[in-house]
Amino acid sequence: MQEHMLFFVGTSLVLMGTFWIGVAFYNWIDRKKLFARHKIQANRYASEKQVKKAARLILKHQIFILLPLLFLTYPLFAQLGMNFSFQDWPPVWMIALQIVFFMLVEDFLFYWTHRILHRPNLYKKIHKVHHEFVTPTAIASLYAHPIEFIVANSLPVMAGPVLVALFGLNMHLGVLWIWLFIRVLETLDGHSGYNFRLWFPHKLIYGAGAKPHDEHHSKFNGNFASFFHHWDRIHGSELVVKPRAAAKKPTAQSRDADAVSVS
Ligand SMILES: [Zn+2]
Ligand SMILES: [Zn+2]
């Protein structure tokens, strides 16, 4: 297969395949009410109507935004010398370091784009769509306004690999796929509504399971980062997660809030 097609087909399959298989799994356990004791918001589930609405919007985004973006991304990586040879992988230590670097870059960019999207005017116009899910479920992870889909969901994920390629540090297509697989698993888990103990990668890295982002959806006013705690801690936007409080229903006030700025 030509490099362009390998990049386009393989990357699309990793992103969309992981996402939809993950969504199908979480939706199935939601409907069967399996693992109910691990639910963060006890006995609260997104409705089927919400899930179907989200599925329609996400499919549109994937077809009309994600696929064209991936098609156009290939020339950039090719120009920057991406390694497309599966006989020539970087050493394992380099793969591990690159993945940690991608996480740090994504976490930083996601923190700031996400936090800026909580400014009242941008929240009303853009980010409110994502927050229709007060009780998140896996499909909510990509349910967003198209501008958010590009600026907060897509660009921060690709920024790390572009930087590694730019620095000439052996950016391998297979490593890009591993990274995208981890990122999709993390965001599915973060929106799943379940706090599974020891679930990789969210629990392992974030240290608090899916609770921080679940709290973000029910409280609106903190926990803006994706993988790590540090930016929320440094900038005073971390919500303190109390297991019992997390299971409470969100208040009418938090449900109706349009946006809460964090100072
Ligand atoms: Zn938000
Ligand atoms: Zn979210």
Description:
The chain is mostly helical and about 260 residues long. It has one domain (about 5-255). The chain is built from eleven helices and no strands. Helix 1 runs parallel beside helix 6 and helix 2 runs parallel beside helix 5 (about 145-165). It starts with a helix and ends in a 7-residue tail after the last helix. The structure holds zinc ion (2 copies). One zinc ion (ZN) binds near residues 114, 118 and 131. One zinc ion (ZN) binds next to helix 8.
Mean pLDDT: 89
DSSP strand count = 0
Low-confidence stretches: 244-263
Order of helices and strands: HHHHHHHHHHH
User: Major sheet: size, sense and barrel closure?
Assistant: none
Portion in strands: under 5%
CA gyration radius, whole angstroms: 18 Å
Bound chemical compounds: zinc ion
Shape: globular
How many angstroms does the end-to-end distance come to? 52 Å
Class from secondary-structure proportions: mainly alpha
Number of domains: 1
Write a brief caption for the model:
With about 260 residues, the protein is mainly alpha-helical. It contains eleven helices and no strands. Bound molecules: zinc ion (ZN) (2 copies).
Layout of SSEs?
Layout: H1 3-31, H2 48-79, H3 92-117, H4 120-127, H5 146-166, H6 173-191, H7 202-206, H8 211-219, H9 230-234, H10 243-246, H11 252-256
Helix pairs in contact: 1-2, 1-6, 2-5, 3-5, 3-6
The chain binds zinc ion (2 copies).
